[in-house]
Design brief:
single chain; 251 residues; alpha+beta; Arc Repressor Mutant, subunit A; Chorismate lyase; six-stranded antiparallel sheet; two-stranded antiparallel sheet; 10 strands; elongated
C-alpha cells in the first residue's frame, strides 16, 4: 500500500487527549506546514488505521470533524481532500461575484441552468410588485471558482425594468453587471440564513446532503422600482460572508 507520509511515533496517547484529537493534529500539522496543499488527497480511514494503529472509529471521527471544521472536503466514494481557503463575499454590499473571484486571482466561470419566462408564484409576485401569475424573468446560474462551484444564483427579474434580460449571455457577463447598467442600484434588502441544501442544490454545488449552506435572499431597487429578487446559496465549507462598516483603524 502506498505510504501516506504519516509517522506513527507522532501520535501520542495520554489520559487527557483522546486518540482522535491526536490524529486530527497530525493531519492539521501537515496542512498548516504546507506539506499537504489544497486539493491534496489525505489518507483514508483504512490508511490511518494501518499507519497509526488506531481504530476505524477513531480515524472516522478525526476525518469527520476536520470536514465539519472546514479543513477537509469529503467526496463520497472518492476520498478526503485538503480544503481550499474559503472565498469571501461581501455580506451587505452588492458586488459582482466575477469581480470578487478575479480579485483573488482566480478564474470565474458561470454555467446557466435556467434562463426563461415564468409565471410569478405568490411570494415572487409580492416581492416584485406584480400580479400573481404575471410573467417574470427567471435565471438560475451556478458560479465556479477555479472549476469548483461556489454559488447558486436563483434570480427573478421584473420584466418591465430589464426587458432584454432573457437575451443576455450570462456565461460572458453576470446578471449583476447587466442589471447595474440598465437599472443602476439605489437600494437593497438582505436576509441571511444558515440552511440545509435541497437535493438539487447539493448536485449543482457538488456537496453532501449533510453539509450546511449560507443563503442570502436579496431584493434590489433602482429608484422607486423593485428590479430583482435573488436567492444566493453558498457551500458553507467553501465560503464566508464578511461585512465592515465605519472607520476601522489599522494595527
Amino acid at each position: 500500500m502506498k505510504r501516506t507520509g504519516l509517522i506513527k511515533k507522532d501520535l501520542v496517547a495520554n489520559d487527557a487527549t483522546p486518540l482522535y484529537v491526536g490524529v486530527k493534529q497530525i493531519i492539521l500539522d501537515k496542512i498548516h506546514s504546507g506539506e499537504w496543499p489544497p486539493k491534496h488527497r489525505v489518507p483514508s480511514e483504512t490508511e490511518l488505521v494501518i499507519e497509526l494503529g488506531v481504530s476505524k472509529m477513531t480515524a472516522n471521527r478525526a476525518l469527520r470533524e476536520l470536514a465539519n471544521e472546514g479543513e477537509l472536503i469529503r467526496v463520497q466514494g472518492v476520498g478526503s481532500f485538503v480544503a481550499e481557503r474559503k472565498g469571501v463575499s461581501a455580506l451587505f454590499e452588492v458586488r459582482n461575484i466575477a469581480d470578487e473571484i478575479a480579485d483573488r486571482g482566480h478564474a470565474h466561470v458561470a454555467k446557466v441552468v435556467v434562463l426563461a419566462k415564468k409565471a410569478a408564484a405568490p411570494d415572487i409576485a409580492d416581492a416584485l410588485g406584480v400580479e400573481i401569475g404575471a410573467d417574470v424573468f427567471h435565471s438560475l446560474i451556478v458560479h465556479h471558482e477555479e472549476g469548483v462551484p461556489v454559488q447558486i444564483e436563483d434570480r427573478y427579474v421584473h420584466p418591465e425594468r430589464a426587458p432584454d434580460y432573457l437575451a443576455q449571455d450570462f456565461s460572458l457577463t453576470t446578471p449583476n453587471a447587466y442589471l447595474s447598467e440598465v437599472a443602476p442600484l439605489s437600494g437593497s434588502e438582505h436576509v441571511v440564513e444558515a440552511i440545509m441544501p435541497q437535493p438539487w442544490e447539493c448536485k449543482l454545488l457538488m456537496m453532501l446532503k449533510t453539509e450546511p449552506c449560507l443563503m442570502i435572499r436579496r431584493r434590489t431597487w433602482s429608484g422607486r422600482d423593485v428590479i430583482s429578487l435573488a436567492r444566493i446559496v453558498y457551500p458553507g465549507h467553501r465560503y464566508r460572508l464578511e461585512s465592515r462598516n465605519g472607520t476601522i483603524p489599522e494595527f
